[in-house]
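Much of the work behind modern protein science is quiet bookkeeping, done one molecule at a time. The protein below has been through that process, and both of its lines are reproduced in full.
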Amino acid sequence: MSQVIAALSRDHANITKLLELIESEILAIEVGKKPDYPLMQDVMRYMVQYSDRFHHPKEDLIFAQLLRRSPEVRADVKDMIAEHVSIRLTGQEFAGLLRASNVDSVDVREQLGTSGFAYIRALREHMLREEKKLFPLAMQVLTKMEWQVIDDAVDAIDDPLFDEMTADDYQRLYRLITNQ
């Protein structure tokens, strides 16, 4: 298995944990409880700073090689790349709402719920399609040389939350995740 696919699969598992945290906080809003806004802000800061900037570009490298090898998946790959953009924008919108969450009103809570659930749903569906269709196809059809091109193009970027040296900014979030 390519090092990149292994790293992306780990990222997906970690992102799933983060989405579960956000979802539980949004559900708290829906039943009238006050959510942990700083926690949701930390999660979304991570998603915008790491996932959107480093995770999706790695996938795009695989998709580019996959298009060269299997042009029949062009529509699927174009959809995935377009979803990277829309997920980033949806995430930025949700993160912006969270930054403005110091105004605790019914309207703000409704917007957070709508925006947050839209982000969670889009990202879960996106990752599932990658894991079930495009990653297995890439593993099947790409050559060792093509995987080497991908691996060489990907810088070894430390994940600020899940790698061995968790960044100070993410210590609280890391403790919450590991204590679940």
About this structure: The chain has a mean pLDDT of 85. The domain at 3-178 is CATH 1.20.120.520 (Four Helix Bundle (Hemerythrin (Met), subunit A)). The radius of gyration is 17 Å.
